[in-house]
Each structure stands twice: as structure tokens, then as C-alpha cells.
Prior knowledge:
- With 408 residues, this protein is α/β, with parallel strands linked by helices.
- The protein folds into three domains: 5-112 and 242-309, FAD/NAD(P)-binding domain (3-Layer(bba) Sandwich), CATH 3.50.50.60; 126-237, FAD/NAD(P)-binding domain (3-Layer(bba) Sandwich); 328-405, 2-Layer Sandwich (Enolase-like, domain 1), CATH 3.30.390.
- The protein is built from eight helices and 26 strands.
- The chain has helices at residues 13-24, 66-71, 132-139, 155-166, 187-199, 246-250, 295-309, 374-386, and strands at 5-9, 30-35, 74-78, 82-86, 91-94, 99-101, 104-107, 111-113, 126-128, 147-151, 170-175, 203-206, 210-216, 218-224, 229-231, 234-237, 241-243, 259-260, 272-274, 279-283, 288-290, 321-326, 329-335, 342-347, 355-361, 364-371.
- The strands form seven sheets. A five-stranded parallel beta sheet has the order 3-2-1-7-19. It has a five-stranded parallel beta sheet with strand order 9-16-10-11-12.
- Helix 1 links the parallel strand 1 and strand 2.
- The chain is globular, with a radius of gyration of 22 Å.
- Bound molecules: flavin-adenine dinucleotide.
- Flavin-adenine dinucleotide (FAD) binds at residues 9-15, 34-37, 44-45, 47-48, 81-82, 108-111, 129-130, 156, 244, 247, 276-277, 293-296, 298, 322-324.
Amino acid sequence: MSNEHVVVIGGSHGAAQLVASLRQEGWTGKISLVSAEPIVPYHRPPLSKTYLAGEQHQDEILIRPANFYEGAEVDLVLGSRVIAINREDKSITLHDGGKISYDKLALTTGAKVRRLALPGDHLQGVLYLRDLGDVDRIRQFTGNGKHAVIIGGGYIGLETAASLKKCGMHVTVLEALPRVLQRVTAPQISEFYMRIHREEGVEVLTGVVAKSINGEGLVESVSCENDLRLKADLVIIGIGVLPETKLAEDAGLEVDNGILVDEFARTSDHDIVAAGDCTNHFNPLYQRRIRLESVQNATDQAKTAAKSLCGKLEPYRALPWFWSDQYDVKLQIAGLSQGYDHVVVRGDWEKGRSFSVFYFLKEKFIAVDAVNRPKEFMLSRRLLAEGRTPDLTRLGDDSIPIQDLLKA
Ligand SMILES: Cc1cc2nc3c(=O)[nH]c(=O)nc-3n(C[C@H](O)[C@H](O)[C@H](O)COP(=O)(O)OP(=O)(O)OC[C@H]3O[C@@H](n4cnc5c(N)ncnc54)[C@H](O)[C@@H]3O)c2cc1C
């Protein structure tokens, strides 16, 4: 191991954790981190929250200080896109034609935005939000009293709406489906978010499909299928992401909605591991293959991948969790709610800003969405990881502490 070289492709949560974990696990060989981005890995969640709202600077969102990589003897190759993995001679090719040889390779290539083809989508001021460069571009079109239209009522769209509102903009969110967050939450959570955005002065239009973006050079408005025309100085499209798997596919690795990895984060080539948004893994807690888009998964799976490279095969079986910050509301999610057949709500979701939605499948507790209820989130995380289910007949009574509702 001492003379071997690990090359990590990617420059975000997965990559930052992988290089740190490699050293912690005793990797003594060379480590290189090759990222298309020009700066060291930074936290992505603040991009739609505090960083967009101007409440945090670039230096404050770095995952590790820039000098960490020097201390850990990690060679940084920044601003360099990898265009090919050559498995025959174990090397990668960079966009400028340069080559780097590897003994082991780690893919943390993450995800890329899903693009929306609309007339006028090329206009200045029509943007997506995935990395720091995107926010810096968005900032050129923000300003007190200006109009922003956000296409897509998912977490990123809603967080962006809240942050732009803080910047003094008039904000409209367009969601094609009947409710925001429809694909990922119960109706109570969707209705709650529609209410709080409206209370904060954001216009949320559901069941409305954007038809074209209009302007000459600069964006001026968005036309919708119901003939509505919305003034716009800025349009942000947030309709989800796709796993960045091209390198892996071209190299002949197995890919199916993400790079297929085993429980040790190994790809179909055992000299190549992968972690984070780009992967698809079997989750033993939910007994199915999943692809997650979360900091938790990128970080925890990277730890597993680093261990595997160091010859310590430990299966990845972390409980998925996620969060979203909008205004004074912190949503914390534990588990996966997809496929639920029953929910129990604790607290006043119709008027208040503190409640939890518990999701069940065949009376088994599978997930929670906790709104400003960190204790219920923490306890639920523990229960879910242990496979325990609270007494669902009395769970809705907010006056009974959850601890008193636990089945033996
Ligand atoms: C605005 C925003 C807000 C979010 N908020 C939350 C949140 O609140 N909570 C949460 O849990 N998650 C949140 N997420 C999701 C979370 O940020 C991702 O799940 C996480 O960043 C995944 O990390 P990753 O390392 O797998 O991939 P990514 O963060 O996608 O990083 C991939 C990296 O690989 C690089 N790369 C890709 N291809 C190549 C190549 N060929 N050559 C070189 N480099 C390459 C990219 O440039 C990038 O640096 C948010 C995401 C965004 C965009």
C-alpha cells in the first residue's frame, strides 16, 4: 500500500471525506484529488441558503481549510476535468490531454442539473444552481425590488425562493405538479411550505407549467401554459439532478441510475470505488437499491470507500438523513418515505411552524419529516436505525412524549 497511488475524481463532499478518511485509515501512499472546480471542496447546502442570501462568504463554507490538504499530503489538481478513465493502463486523461496514473481510483463525480429545454432558455439571467460559480452568476441579477421566477418547487427551488426574498426580491415559484415537494413528501408538508412561503410574501403557483422565457438578450418575462405572463429579471431552473456517470459508463463500469456499487462502495472494477450522488447502492435497511442526493450519503459512503481501499471491508448501512432550511424553519428528514401507506402528524401543521410527520408502511415506521423539532428527529433517527416503531395509535397525541410510545 505504501507505494500505491489513489486518485480521487471530484471536488465536493464525497471527495473531501474520502481523502481525509484514507489518511485516518492508514493509507501511506500518494493521494491526488482531481476536481473540475477551481477551489478546494466547499459545503454545497449553503449555496441556496446563507451563501445566496449573502450571509456567508466563500472562506466560511469550505469543508476543510485549504491548508488541510497540504498537511494530509494530498496533491490537489483543481480546475481540471477528467475526460476518460483508461482501465487497461490504469490512468486518467485530463481535459488538457495530461495523464495521471493510478493504482486505485475513487469516483465522487456527484450529480449535474437536469436541464429544461424552453424557448428563450439561452437568455442572460436564466440560470441553474449547483455550484459556487452558479451563485456568483445569479448574484449579477439579484437586487432589491427586482423580480425572480423559480421554475421547480423542490427543496432547492424553495430554499432559493426564501433566500432571494431575503435579498428584497419579488419571488414567484412555478410548480407544474399540484403541490410543491410532491415527489418527496406527504401533502401536509407540501401545504405547510406553500403556506409559509405565502406568509413570507413569495408567490407559489402550483399546476402551472412554464411555456417560454421571453426577452431580447436579457430575460424579461416567463410565459405559462395558462396564458399567465410573469415579469422576470432572473429565472432559476431547479428541476432536479442526474447522476454524473459518463466517465464510468465510457470506462465500461456497470451503471444503472448511478454507478452500481456493492456494500463496500466498490464498483464492478474492484480497483475503483465510488461514493455520493453518483452512486446507486443496495440499502439493507430498506431492502432495495437507491440513489441518494445528500451530504450524509456522500460523507458516510466515502468513509466506507476509503476503508475498502485500505483493505478494511465494512458494509455501508447508514440511515439516510437530510435537512432543508427556509426562513426560520428547519426541516430534518430521517429515513426514506417513498412507498408509505399511512402518516401520523404530531403538532399543528395548519397554523404553526413546529410539527412532525411520521411515515409508515404496513405499520412499520419508515421515515420522519420533523419541522423545527430536533428532538423528535434525533429520537426518530435512533428508532429507524434500530428498526423500532412507536405506537402509531397514540403517536398523534402531541401531549404524550414519544418516549412513552415505544413498543418493547
Ligand atoms: C444548492 C444545493 C443545496 C443543497 N442542500 C442540501 C441540504 O440542505 N442537505 C443535504 O443533505 N444535501 C443538500 N444538497 C445535496 C448535496 O449537496 C449533495 O448531495 C452533495 O454535494 C453530494 O456530494 P458529492 O461529493 O457526491 O457530489 P457533488 O457535490 O455533486 O460534487 C461532485 C464533484 O465532482 C466534480 N466532477 C464531476 N465530474 C468531474 C470530472 N469529470 N472531472 C473532475 N471533476 C469532476 C464536480 O465538479 C464536483 O466538484 C444540496 C445541493 C445543492 C446543489
